[in-house]
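Key result, reporting period 2: structure in, sequence out.
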């Protein structure tokens, strides 16, 4: 009897009046899911970038791998102290990187004005990266807490599918990036600097400038590849977690969203 109410003109008018609202709700639901699928890989990559930039041992390991002490004439102890100062510089409110070391029995500035100017630009860039990382993390956490767990707007099966899609997308993009880096990392490195900085302070002299002696091109290649590899492992675990849940739930992940109820169980055909 209630179903027949929709056939009368007044009920049809109510249903038509609600169509724009329902369409807007469906669009908002789709957009939040797409934003989650994009935010998750961004969060993974930038979290690893933030760790690498904030962890002095990443720098000190590079100093030893590329024998930076011999290249710069600065002792390993002084270089290690400089690595800690650079890591702090990205987090504190200093405008200039005023790292000082002991050479020939006297204290001198480790970097010249051009290098200090470039590091000021790098700090500005890194702080922007940190803010984007924080925003992506907050969105991912909020989506899981409020959309999936609290409001149940997404069933666990649908969320598992979303994890699979996001994880596989991350693996694909990072795989393509790694291939491009293997083919022409130097060209990508130059293009990155041209796009990221509005001046030429990043163009340093390897014969005289300690900043590029401390962080040669090979260092950035290795760090980039390690960050990519770690992120790919994380993305694979995300996708695997989604697949494991779908397998245990015995629900084919390609089934349409409309075939599931709010609890994530398949709705029997009528």
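The corresponding designed sequence is given below.
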């Amino acid at each position: 009897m209630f179903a027949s109410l929709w056939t009368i003109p007044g009920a049809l008018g109510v249903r038509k009046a609600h169509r724009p609202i329902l369409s807007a709700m469906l669009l908002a639901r789709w957009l939040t899911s797409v934003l989650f699928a994009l935010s998750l890989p961004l969060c993974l990559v930038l979290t690893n970038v933030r760790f690498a930039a904030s962890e002095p041992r990443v720098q000190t390991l590079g100093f030893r791998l590329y024998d930076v002490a011999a290249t710069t004439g600065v002792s390993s102890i002084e270089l290690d102290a400089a690595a800690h100062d650079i890591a702090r510089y990205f987090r504190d409110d200093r405008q200039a990187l005023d790292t000082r070391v002991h050479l020939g029995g006297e204290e001198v500035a480790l970097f010249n004005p051009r290098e200090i100017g470039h590091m000021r630009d790098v700090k500005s860039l890194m702080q922007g990266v940190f803010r984007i990382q924080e925003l992506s993390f907050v969105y991912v956490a909020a989506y899981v807490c409020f959309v999936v767990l609290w409001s149940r707007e997404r069933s666990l099966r649908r969320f598992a599918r979303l994890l699979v899609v996001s994880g596989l997308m991350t693996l694909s993009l990072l795989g393509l990036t790694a291939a491009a880096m293997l083919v022409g990392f130097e060209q990508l490195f130059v293009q990155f600097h041209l796009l990221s900085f509005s001046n030429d302070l990043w163009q340093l002299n390897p014969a005289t400038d300690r900043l590029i002696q401390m962080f040669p091109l090979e260092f950035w290649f290795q760090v980039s590849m390690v960050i990519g590899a770690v992120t790919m492992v994380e993305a694979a675990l995300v996708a695997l977690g989604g697949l494991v849940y779908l397998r245990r739930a015995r629900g084919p992940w390609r089934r349409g969203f409309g075939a599931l109820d709010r609890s994530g169980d398949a709705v029997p055909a009528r």
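Residues 160 and 245 are 7 Å apart (CA to CA). The chain is about 70% helix and 5% strand. This case is discussed further under Risks and Mitigation.
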